[in-house]
Specification:
The protein is mainly alpha-helical and 87 residues long. It has 3 helices and 2 strands; from the N terminus they run αββαα. It is elongated.
């Protein structure tokens, strides 16, 4: 015979845990987003997540890479040229 417990199912606890840890990442991303927007930078998309897609000039990317760690997907111009080639 199974005992009844008041414990939440594992999936519910896991969901709460994920929301708790991701809320900090999203909060920090919002702060970064605000800083970049105030400086006049353009965003590739308006992302509500902790991933922000900021369009930076090559010179600014080089300057930032000397002080912080970040990654980029691809250059904007190359993206448009690739799309034009597909069309």
């Amino acid at each position: 015979m199974k005992r009844k417990t008041n414990r939440e199912p594992d999936r519910v606890r896991h969901g709460r845990f994920i929301r708790k840890i991701s809320s900090h990442a999203i909060s920090m991303a919002k702060k970064l987003k605000k800083l970049f927007a105030e400086k006049g930078y353009e965003f590739y998309i308006d992302s509500p997540t902790n991933q922000q897609f900021i369009i930076l000039p090559n010179e600014k990317m080089e300057e930032l890479s000397q002080r912080v760690v970040f990654s980029f997907w691809e250059k904007k111009d190359e993206d448009m040229e690739e799309l034009a080639g597909i069309l």
